[in-house]
Amino acid sequence: MKNRTTRFRVACVAACYVATAGYAGATQADGDNSQQIDALKHEVNDLTRKIDELSRKQDAAATAPPATIAQTPTPAPALSQDDESVLHGLVKFLKGNEFYANIDLSVDDVTKGWNGIRGLPPHTYYKDGDPAAGTATPVGRTGWQPAIGTNATYFGIRGKHALGGDFNLVYQLETQVDVTSQPGTANTNSNSSSTVKGALASRTSFLGFANKDWGSIKIGKGYGPYKVATDRMNPFNAMLGDYAVIMGNTGGDNRVEFGGYLDHAIWYESPKIHGVSFNALVSPGQNRSGEDDNIAQGESDCTGGNIPGSGALAPSCNDGSFGTAFSTSLAYEGPASLPLYVTGAYELHRGVNRVSDVVGPDPNNPASDVVANDPRDIANEWAAKIGVQYLLPTHTTLNFIWEDLHRAVPQALAFQNERSRRGTWVAITQTLGSKDDISLGWAHAQRSPGDPGQHTTPTTSNPDNQSNLFTAAIKHKLDKQTIIYANWALTENASAAHYDLGAGAHGLKTDCHDASPLYVNDTLPDGNIVQVANGPFCYPGGHLMGVSIGVNYKF
Length: 555
Known about the structure:
Layout: H1 2-27, H2 30-63, H3 81-95, E1 97-111, E2 145-150, E3 154-164, E4 167-176, E5 185-187, E6 192-196, E7 205-211, E8 215-223, H4 225-228, E9 261-269, E10 276-283, E11 325-333, E12 340-353, E13 378-391, E14 396-407, E15 421-432, E16 436-445, E17 450-451, E18 460-461, E19 467-477, E20 482-493, E21 519-523, E22 529-533, E23 543-554
Antiparallel strand pairs: 1-2, 1-3, 1-23, 3-4, 4-7, 5-6, 7-8, 8-9, 9-10, 10-11, 11-12, 12-13, 13-14, 14-15, 15-16, 16-19, 17-18, 19-20, 20-23, 21-22
Helix pairs in contact: 1-2
């Protein structure tokens, strides 16, 4: 209404101006009239413009929401003493803990190499290892197979809680993370595990006490000092060709007997005094069976690997289960002026049950008193090694390890003892600038006293089961936390050897077994159909080779 009134007034004013101008034009000379008319027009235009601006402002004011009355904010309710205590504890917890992770993914292409590579002739395999039974041929894909896997990927939290007097409560909870596959039990057609690797605290986890002067004592599970002592000498950790393919690996399988987790353990870690440190661990057997063929109390797997019945064996822990374990190491690390690291380590597994290795009498002495599943094949196994690492002025790191593995069985069972042997490891890493390095490695496994036979090869004394591992890798740092890498590896087995490719922390395992099913249907004379144990079958002598490209990120 106000706008319309304003505009009406403007119109009246304009009309008066126009009338005045017309009257002036009728009574005055043409020159005077023209000047007056122009002046009146300018005044009318200015007035109209001002009134339009006023109208727009009034229209905007009419459509705007009503102004709100400013109110004083209501203060947040005060925290109770209990709430303040919880909040203070949470802040303290976050400040006193470290969250960390390692993420490693790769694309691999690997062949089992049964038919020979580099022009080498294929080996001849026999059914049940018996030449009289005819030759055997692997089932399934025997050539190159590409795959994508997760390697040594984990997430964890660790920290300490001050107890006063330079004493701290220390703890760590660490779990494996399967990025490229679903978490769950690890099962293949030749090896099974009931342990869920992706479960909370599935990796090194502990609770303990620490003091800078006397060291730390921890209870939980983790790698033994025997393995940890030489980890720094393995530039291919979690890659294809990890030195665990041979080092600490008594049988050549992807189970590394002297490089795995030791559960329900207690261990001591000394401080470094003049460069010298000492570590020791004990893991009680917790096995109610006198032959260690039960699952240890509180565990889900047989100690040392397979669940009962894995690999088409009898439903008991008779393929490497052991009782109490001891592990220890002594090391010296020099100052910056002497970049030398020297270590010695020892580990003992008591009462290792391998009665499944004995499938019959000694083929070289059929009249012997050896029988299938001979109870004498429960014996101690131990490993000892010496490692040396030195950094040259050329930024070249040299690594050397000598290792002795031993299984203490009586001489009557030596014909099937593949667990006693020696091995060596040599590796060199050359740093190239600030972001690149190249590493080369070679491991050698010497012959063992005997071999229990591998499905397609016979049991024999003095077998040709030596093996060589060749590994190469190039790493490039994108930044302090991110590395991309490419590597190549070859496990070159002699005719009776079955060392694998992928042992250690590499996620994708390649072994000597073919793709034949665990059981097959068999028709009885009466027409009934039953399932009988069948495969898979191990084909030794393979030259397993693979290439891998991956990325590693840490925080």
